[in-house]
Every structure is written in C-alpha cells, then in structure tokens.
Write a structure and sequence with these properties.
The structure is a single chain. The protein has 388 residues and is an alpha/beta fold. 29% of the residues lie in helices and 16% in strands. The strands form three sheets. Strands 5, 6, 7, 8, 9, 10, 11 and 12 form an eight-stranded mixed sheet that branches. The chain has a four-stranded antiparallel sheet with strand order 2-3-1-4. A two-stranded antiparallel ribbon has the order 13-14. β5 (114-117), α7 (124-133) and β6 (138-142) form a beta-alpha-beta unit.
Length: 388
C-alpha cells in the first residue's frame, strides 16, 4: 500500500511500524486518511445536577466515548466550533481527543486522595483527574515550561477546580519537596510525538532516531522523580503519544530494572483494552489511530506497595514486590530445566519474541506464574536485523 498523500511519514518510522504490526500494518497506514473523530469531556464540577441532562444542554454531542462517563464525540463540522461557544469559556467542557482521556481513566482517583499530574500542560488530564476528585483531596498539576504552565493555570481556573495547585518546577526539584507524598501520579511524558503525525505535521519533520533516544533518556529521569514521590500502595500511569518501543516498553523496562520494588499489573478497564496477562510489559497497550480516531500512543500502569496491599491492588497496575521479577537472558532461559521455579515461586514463562530495544539485547521477558519454559528464540519485530 502506498503512503497516504496527506501525511508523508518518515521511512525509518514506516519500516519499524511494518515490522511491529505485520498484517495489521495496511490498516494502520490507511487510518491516516480516515476522518478524525473530535471529542470533548464534560466537566462534572459544573454539570452535576443539571435537571435536563447534558444532551439537552449541549445538543451537538453525538455519542459517548465508551471508556469514560464524561467523554463525548461530536461531528467534525467546521461550522460547529465548540471552542468558541460560551459554555466552553464557562468551563462546562474541555475539548480533548478520546485517546487522550485514557490515562486518567485508568487512574481514577478517589475523593480525598493526593494526585500529581507531573507533565500537566495544557491541562486535559489534570482537569479529568480533578473531576474524579470532586473537589476533595489535592491535585498538583506541574509543568516545566513557564508559558505552558500559564495555559495550564488558565484551564484549571476555567474549569472551576477549587483544590488544585499549579507548579512550574523540574520533576527532580519537585521530588525533593514531595517524597512519598502522592497516592496517584500520571506521567504523560514528553516524547517523539509519532502519534501526532496526522495532527501536527511539524512532528514528522522533527522525527529522527536521535530524537527518540533523547526522549527516552528524558523519560527515564522523569519516571525516577515520579517514583520518589509515590506513596506506598500508590499508582503511576505512564503514557506517551508515540509508538517508539524505546520510549514505551523500553522506558518502562528501564524503570523496572532500576526499581525492583515496582511491578506492572493488569487493568480491569475492559472497555479500554483487552490485554494479554503474560508478562509485566503486557499490562499496557498501544492505541492505534483507527481505535479512537484521533492521536495515538502507548500507556502502562505501574503500582508500588509494601507487603500488605489492599485487595483492589491486584486488579491492574504496578506494585512494589518483595521478590521482584527479573529479565532473564535467552541462553539461561533455554538451559532452565522444565519445571524450574523463579525466586517468587512461580514457573518460568518466556514469550516467543525477545524484548531487545537496545536495552537488554537478546533477552526474553520472563517470569509468570503459569506455563513451562519454552523459548523459541525468535527475533522480535522491533529488533534490528541480525538480532538473536
């Protein structure tokens, strides 16, 4: 299939996506020429108690976004312009693509909790988290760039959020002041922006393998700071708007190797994704543009905790383990006897694709509580030719 004329994609990007997606690649490529599906999220802090309902107040809403109660699609009509409506200025809704609603939907705080949006501008995820807090607890929305922090502050004010603190700080400096403080942290990390190619053509011009490596290094620093600020039993949701394995699985894998007291857990949000449960890095998802009709990317859910976790913690995030899982080299995996057990007492299990990404060359991601060892040694679709 030829490349879409509307979006001249970088050759290195398309080659990697072809290896990554295999038979699904033509559908992915065709999605760049499909109509976009604009969406917005109504503000429960403003609209709760409206007697005639949201649809009566905002008749241009078309259908619900299936994985969040406050999300709605609306027609892609140039004459509609909901951003110019007085209700928008009054903070009744926030214009936000459906895919951008996923991270906060996976990390819904309970009223009274302390929540951090570490890379918060322009404010979509922060205001979504604030709606779940219902004015109780504390929301800290941080943005490192002063200009974007001003935009973030304006959106927080427009949406009528009474319990929010907007900061303009480096993540490392923030970690010095809030050690072990937050129950939930959302890290929508700055990235190479591959999921924004259709929306922002300049992202195509900026794409390069060097930029991907630079972004991955920056993400590692941000996640280290987030780990320091997370309270025992807390949850981190890590998301990007890129497909690059170095920035998605690679960043999470680097984080897990540096923080053996963390682990990923499956989400119970079945309306959002249907993930496989074999391996920590499967507790997440790449969101392709044909799914939500907008920007796309990747997310992972990570949880920390001590030996005593509430029962709800088993339902799908990342938790701190007494005996952490580890990455096991392929050769060691092949030599492991059938029935061998891990340090946690579970059976070795090896996926058929190696997780390389230049971080753990020729390594299988191991350790599950089911199945017996079977490593095929196949090269994963992300790895460069010649990897074993």
């Amino acid at each position: 299939m030829s490349e879409p004329e509307t979006c001249a994609l970088p050759l290195g990007f398309t080659d990697r996506m072809h290896r990554l997606l295999g038979a699904e690649y033509p559908a992915f490529l065709a999605s760049y020429d499909k109509p976009r599906r604009p969406a917005l999220r109504v503000n429960p802090l403003r609209l709760d108690g409206i007697p005639d309902g949201v649809r009566a107040l905002l008749p241009f809403l078309a259908e619900r976004v299936p994985f969040t109660a406050d999300g709605w699609y609306y027609p892609d009509d140039p004459a509609l312009r909901p951003g110019r409506h007085p209700y928008h200025e009054a903070g009744l809704y926030y214009i936000q693509e459906a895919s951008a609603m996923i991270p906060a939907a996976l990390c819904p705080p309970r009223p009274g909790e302390r929540v951090l949006d570490l890379c918060a501008a322009p404010g979509g995820k922060a205001t979504q988290l604030a709606g779940a807090l219902r004015g109780q607890g504390l929301l800290v929305a941080n943005e490192i760039h002063p200009g974007r922090a001003a935009v973030l502050s304006g959106n927080i004010e427009r949406m009528g959020i009474p319990n929010a603190l907007v900061l303009n700080m480096e993540p490392q400096a923030l970690a010095e002041r809030f050690p072990g403080f937050f129950d939930r942290i959302v890290v929508d990390a700055p990235c190479s922006g591959e999921g924004m190619f259709r929306k922002e053509p300049q992202a195509v011009q900026m794409w390069s393998p060097e930029n991907i490596a630079l972004c991955a290094a920056r993400q590692a620093e941000i996640l280290r700071a987030a780990a320091r600020m997370l309270a025992p039993g807390g949850t981190i949701v890590y998301s990007t708007c890129t497909f690059a394995p170095e920035e998605d699985e690679g960043s999470v894998l680097t984080f897990l190797r540096e923080h053996p007291d963390f682990d990923t857990v499956m989400t119970d949000a079945s309306a959002i994704l249907a993930c496989l449960a074999d391996g920590r890095l499967d507790a997440g998802r790449r969101n392709m543009p044909e799914v939500c009709g907008g920007r796309c990317g990747s997310f992972r859910i990570m949880r920390t905790g001590r030996d005593t976790l509430p029962s709800c913690c088993a339902a799908g995030r990342m938790r701190r383990l007494a005996m952490p899982c580890r990455a096991v080299p392929c050769r060691a995996a092949r030599s492991a006897p059938v029935g061998a057990t891990t340090a946690r007492g579970g059976a070795y299990r090896f996926r058929t694709r190696c997780v390389c990404f230049g971080i753990l060359p020729a390594a299988c991601w191991g350790i599950s509580r089911t199945a017996s060892p079977a490593c095929s040694g196949r090269r994963c679709p992300f790895c460069p030719p010649g990897a074993t």
